[in-house]
Amino acid sequence: MNNSPVPVNIADKLAQFSDLWSQKKIAQLNDYEVKLAKLKGEFVWHKHDDTDELFLVISGRLTLQLRDGDVTLGPGELYVVPQGVEHCPVADEETAILLFEPVGTPNTGDAGGSRTKAPETLS
C-alpha cells in the first residue's frame, strides 16, 4: 500500500461531476470542509448566523447579491460573506467555485427548503 502524499487536483475533481448547486467535498482542514460546486442561475436568499462563508471563483463569473450592493467575482477572485449577512449567489453562465466553511454548514443557511443538500464527498 502506498501512503505517499497526493495533492488534490481541482480540475480533475470538477471533471467528476456536472450537477448544479450541489456541493462536493474535496478536503477537510480541522473542522472546515473545502468544497467545489458548479452554479448557474439564481440560488436562494439566505444567511449563516454562525459562520462567515468564503467563495472563490475558479471559472465563470459569480455575483453575490447583498442587501447593501452586489459583489461580482471572476476567476481567481474571492469574497468572504460575513457571518449573519444575507446573500444570494447568481451565475449567468456556468461557474465553478470553491467554498470553505465549517463542517455541517447547510448550503441554504437559515432559508432551508428543497435546495438544501448535504455535500457529497468526491474520491
UniProtKB/TrEMBL annotation:
Residues 102-123 are annotated as: Disordered. InterPro entries: Cupin_2, PKS_Associated_Protein, RmlC-like_jellyroll, RmlC_Cupin_sf. It comes from the Bacteria. Residues 41-96 form the Cupin type-2 domain. Pfam families: Cupin_2. This is Cupin domain-containing protein.
